[in-house]
Amino acid sequence: MYESMNNSAPKSGALPVLDHKDAANRPGAQQSGTTPAGDIALSVSHLYKVFGKRPAEVIKRLKGGKKRSELSALGTAAVIDASFEVKKGEIFVVMGLSGSGKSTLIRTLNGLWAPTEGSVVVGGTDISKISDKELRRVRQEKISMVFQHFALMPHRTVVENAAYALQVQGVAKAERLARAEKILSLVGLEGWGAKFPGELSGGMQQRVGLARALCAETDILLMDEAFSALDPLIRREMQEQLVLLQSELEKTIIFITHDLNEAMFLGDRIAVMRDGEIVQIGTPDEILTSPANDYVAQFVQDVDRTRVLTAGGVMEPPLAVVNLSGGPRNALRTMRDLQVSAAFVVDRRRNYLGTVRDRDVMKQVEAHSSDLNAVIRKSIDPVSPDTALNDLFGRAVESPIPLPVVDDAGRLVGALPRVTLLAALGNVPSTTGEFPVVDAAVAPIPEQVVTAALAKTEGDA
Ligand SMILES: Nc1ncnc2c1ncn2[C@@H]1O[C@H](COP(=O)(O)OP(=O)(O)OP(=O)(O)O)[C@@H](O)[C@H]1O
Hints:
It comes from Arthrobacter stackebrandtii. The chain is α/β, with parallel strands linked by helices and 461 residues long.
């Protein structure tokens, strides 16, 4: 059985990761000079958020030069003296390791946490100084949030989920559903409105999450590790769609991630956090080329494309995939149809089992065997989506067929032909996004020969 991820997967040829967009042309991209107040969507000034028993004392000692690790008995300083401005229409990425304070910071931006000290000004309003009622209004009108685990209501349909913010705003049912349907088509979910979230894949559920946030028609979207739970190919597709939507709708997006690759792809500017502090704010290029300190330098150490780019970031959809249970005949048909001489074999759960060659499969067909397992080669070990390209060149050179990319659960999620690796390095499109499953030197058995072999054994199938 031939399985293709073509419909859901981006073409890597269109995905030069580091400079997929011209930052200078983006609305929020200007870096130099003073930004006029009217162009600021959100500003944070000397913000502290301390959890624990004695937050004021913690801040006093931090200001006196103590480190947060020395003050843990008094409280946890999750955000320390953060100051930055986010421009309208900008994608501002907050990046840092686990525990660096990203989630706390983002929750302070929409008033879920009150700052211990400092201010958060949204659209001209200091949300640390307003009543709960006013804060709810700011949240409804100015800021929406997209969560990592979607947070959809399982018993409501997709369109009802998307329309939720409008319901809260008191918009009449017919109107809110009509508006939500429009937004659903904008995020690629046209015709899915009547389904329930459980009937959708993870990527589609996150589109609903995005649609729900867009429906609220707020200027600012806060996205907390919004794509981290998605398969790499779907994740990349969502990243691309977010960039497109942003340029269409001109939303201001504050995006939290621990993934450098994602930060580089999405961010007009990136704030790097460490132990509660923002240690650098800059464009991806600035972060890469002028790291503010050793920590940032280590984060992006020796970054060249081969290191920033990962297998998951540049892989292609695995085109030639055959299912073990389909047996040799189906496998051979698939290879004939695709005109390839090898294919990846998966089981019903899409677990990667190995590769098969057309010659071996044809022998099985001619021997009237239904056993594909017998000819699976396990010599090509799969790679993880997180593997840096740098670590893959040796293997790619040795392998006559693309390297299979397999997720933590063992499922085949992509393929890495040599041409894609080279294209990623040179930042040029790899062909059309489609690839030969084997290198040219290993030509497939001619189509007529395979067709004849299949026909000869037709009666026995
Ligand atoms: N409600 C809380 N009470 C006490 N400490 C907290 C609370 N929330 C976060 N912290 C602490 O604040 C620090 C920053 O946590 P935060 O979740 O903001 O980091 P993060 O960068 O988002 O990490 P992750 O990516 O793991 O979510 C951590 O030391 C964490 O244990």
